[in-house]
Design brief:
With 58 residues, the chain is mainly α. It is elongated, with a radius of gyration of 15 Å. It has helices at 18-30, 37-47. The chain is built from two helices and no strands. The model has no long low-confidence stretch (mean pLDDT 78).
Length: 58
C-alpha cells in the first residue's frame, strides 16, 4: 500500500520554475496568438524576467 503514495524524490522533476510558468501563463492570457513549445521556449529565453528561464520546454 505504501507504494501507491507519492514520496519525495520520486517522478520527473519540474523543468520550469514557478516564475517561468506564471510568465508564460500571463503571456498566453494577454496575447491573442497561439504558441508551440519551441516558440514558448524562445519567448521565455528572450523576454522572461532575469533569473527565470533556466531550463527549456523541450
Amino acid at each position: 500500500m505504501e507504494g501507491l503514495w507519492e514520496l519525495p524524490g520520486r517522478g520527473v522533476k519540474p523543468k520550469l520554475s514557478e516564475v517561468d510558468i506564471i510568465f508564460l501563463e500571463e503571456c498566453l492570457r494577454i496575447e491573442p496568438r497561439t504558441y508551440n513549445s519551441r516558440q514558448l521556449t524562445e519567448k521565455l529565453e528572450r523576454e522572461a524576467p532575469k533569473g527565470a528561464a533556466s531550463l527549456t520546454l523541450h
